[in-house]
């Protein structure tokens, strides 16, 4: 591709760079950015998160998010996911 140098002038994700070098359409479904998709929060998880927040928000000297993560029944949620969901709610 004689015009590939133009593509190098713009920021590329690792998946786009891989496709540029190995050929477009080289990534299979489920690879790259698609597989990092976060599972959605269920209504039961949201309710549990709400209850844990109200329980631990008044505790002095303790990190509220750390306490929520320690008592969250669904493992695998990150601190960033919990904070983002609390802000959204």
Automatic annotation (TrEMBL):
<dbReference type="InterPro" id="IPR044998">
    <property type="entry name" value="Timeless"/>
</dbReference>
<dbReference type="GO" id="GO:0006281">
    <property type="term" value="P:DNA repair"/>
</dbReference>
<dbReference type="InterPro" id="IPR001005">
    <property type="entry name" value="SANT/Myb"/>
</dbReference>
<protein>
    <submittedName>
        <fullName>TIM protein</fullName>
    </submittedName>
</protein>
<dbReference type="GO" id="GO:0003677">
    <property type="term" value="F:DNA binding"/>
</dbReference>
<dbReference type="GO" id="GO:0031298">
    <property type="term" value="C:replication fork protection complex"/>
</dbReference>
<dbReference type="GO" id="GO:0000076">
    <property type="term" value="P:DNA replication checkpoint signaling"/>
</dbReference>
<dbReference type="GO" id="GO:0043111">
    <property type="term" value="P:replication fork arrest"/>
</dbReference>
<dbReference type="Pfam" id="PF26019">
    <property type="entry name" value="HTH_TIMELESS"/>
</dbReference>
């Amino acid at each position: 591709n004689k015009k590939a140098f133009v593509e190098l002038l713009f920021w590329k994700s690792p998946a786009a760079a891989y496709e540029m070098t190995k050929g477009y359409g080289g990534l299979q479904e489920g690879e790259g950015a698609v597989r990092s998709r976060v599972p959605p929060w269920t209504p039961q998880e949201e309710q549990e998160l709400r209850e844990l927040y109200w329980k631990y928000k008044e505790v002095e000297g303790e990190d509220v998010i750390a306490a929520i993560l320690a008592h969250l029944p669904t493992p695998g949620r990150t601190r960033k996911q919990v904070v983002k969901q609390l802000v959204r709610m």
